Amino acid sequence: MIHSHKLASISSTMSPQFPACGKHKIFIGMAPGVGKTYRMLEEAQQLKKEGLDVVIGLLETHGREATIQKALGLEKVPLKTWIWQEKSLPEMDTEAIISRRPQLVLVDELAHTNVPGSIREKRYQDVELILQSGIDVYSTLNIQHLEGLNDLVHKISGIVVRERLPDRLLEAATEVVLVDVTPETLQERLREGKIYAPDKVDQALQNFFQRRNLIALRELALREVADNVEEEGRESSPQNYCAIHERVLVCISTNPESIQLLRRGARIANQMKGRLFVLFVSHPQQFLSRPEALHIETCQRLTQEFAGEFIRMEGEDIVQAITQVMQTHHVTQIVLGETRRSRWQLLWQGSIVQRLMRRHPQVDLHIIATESG
Question: What is the pLDDT of residue 163?
Answer without folding.
Answer: 92
